[in-house]
Amino acid sequence: MRPAEIVDGGSDSELGFRMHRLACELYPLNRSLTGPGVRATLRSVATRLPLTLHEVPSGTAAYDWTVPDEWVVRDAYIALPDGHRLVDVKAHNLHLVGYSRPFRARMRLHDLRSHLHTLPDRPDWIPYRTSYYNDAWGFALRHRELQSFPDDDVELDVVVDTVLQPGCLTYGECVIPGETSDEVLLSTHVCHPSMANDNLSGIAVLAEVGAMLAEIRPHHTYRLLFVPGTIGSIVWLSRNTDVLPRIRHGLVVTGVGGPGPLVYKQTRHGTRHVDRVAAHVVTARGGEVRPFSPWGYDERQFNSPGFDLPVGRLTRTPHGEYPEYHTSADDLAFIRPETMADAFDACVEILDGLDNDTTWRNLSPWGEPQLGKRGLYPPVGGLHADSEVMAMLWVLNQSDGTRSLLDVAELSGLPFAALRRAAAKLRAGGLLEEAP
Ligand code: ZN
């Protein structure tokens, strides 16, 4: 029996706005590698799909890495002697360098400068800076704000009221059982505070993909991961070595809400089934395929030689190639409901290709079978066959038991989904059977 068809999540505009609303809800949370912001983010995602939150204690070893102390921000600011705050983490999460250790002092701008980060050529944007895995603190601010700081004769109150102590790293995992125990891994990172394309767009799209999958019984078993970047995926890998042999395909989804066409990044082999399916889907949508490189998001970990998992990556304009990247300009206006809806559709098409790439055999291969007498041909013929008929003719012609629907899609240039629908009709009309 074929699996239930992967379905759309409603009209695209409704779906797009739903994803944008989730991004708006999550935007103010102060996410990092660990801490309450990640937990609150995952709890919110868990209201939309059956997500399990896992807590991994600080100090836990994961291959070459160790789960860090948990980071909690209580307050952080730079203030004038009268208490007026020049920089305040409560005004924007990006003001505090991620993982800043506690610090408190009264100091002059001259001594503070090495702890301040700005973008002189983008004076109204706050840069995103982190200080993971080393003992430091700092603030990030608009260059224009820095220019209005008082002269060196004024002493400033500098307060970093953070807690760095043993706690847990939190990640979310959702397993949706399919007809087979073979798995498709979908992953996104959840460690960025108050930036929308990187990483809220990926969270929003995967939350909807998971919600859609949870409503059907897909062919593959789907496993969705919402993990802090790098350490989160490495920790998950270290705890799931029994799962890894079952992973047949995978996709990292992130950075899909901004401008630019879709970009698919291949696995380290570039020849995995997901590479073929994603290339077909993304290029048909005007997107681009790029070869693997060991830089980027968690596809780096899944594709490391010890695991060598067939995991590609779907984004739009990749990280570092748009000026808003890792700044406060990657905000809720930078991501669009329609680009996220388009990314959702592309994702669903890729999963459809992974789930339903069936090889068929034409049961009436001696000349074209008569479609009309089976109710498969439009009653009024025109000059050209319509696309539905063309899809049926392609499937009938190629289905000799050796070519799959993806082969037919690549050869014909027709969308995979159109060929799958055509095959379903032809089978219902008694013209196709699944090849062994
Ligand atoms: Zn990032």
Write the layout of secondary structure elements.
Layout: H1 12-26, H2 36-45, E1 52-57, E2 61-62, E3 65-66, E4 70-79, E5 85-88, E6 103-108, H3 109-112, E7 116-117, E8 139-140, H4 143-147, E9 155-165, E10 168-176, E11 183-189, H5 196-214, E12 221-227, H6 231-239, E13 247-253, E14 263-265, H7 273-284, E15 288-290, H8 299-302, E16 311-315, H9 337-355, E17 359-362, H10 387-398, E18 400-404, H11 405-412, H12 416-428, E19 432-434
Parallel strand pairs: 7-8, 11-12, 11-13, 13-16, 14-15
Antiparallel strand pairs: 1-10, 2-3, 4-5, 4-9, 6-9, 10-12, 14-16, 17-18, 17-19
Helix pairs in contact: 1-5, 1-9, 5-9, 7-9, 10-12
The chain binds zinc ion.
Zinc ion binds next to loops.
What would you say about this model in short?
The protein is α/β, with parallel strands linked by helices and 436 residues long. It has twelve helices and 19 strands. It has three domains: 12-67 and 171-356, 3-Layer(aba) Sandwich (Aminopeptidase), CATH 3.40.630; 70-165, Glucose Oxidase, domain 1, CATH 3.50.30.90; 359-434, Orthogonal Bundle (Arc Repressor Mutant, subunit A), CATH 1.10.10.10.
CATH topology of the largest domain: Aminopeptidase
The CATH level-2 architecture of the largest domain is identified as 3-Layer(aba) Sandwich
Largest sheet: 8 strands, mixed
Strand content: 15-25%
From the spread of the alpha carbons, the general shape counts as elongated
Name given to the CATH homologous superfamily of the largest domain: Zn peptidases
CATH class of the largest domain: Alpha Beta
Number of helices: 12
Structural class: alpha/beta
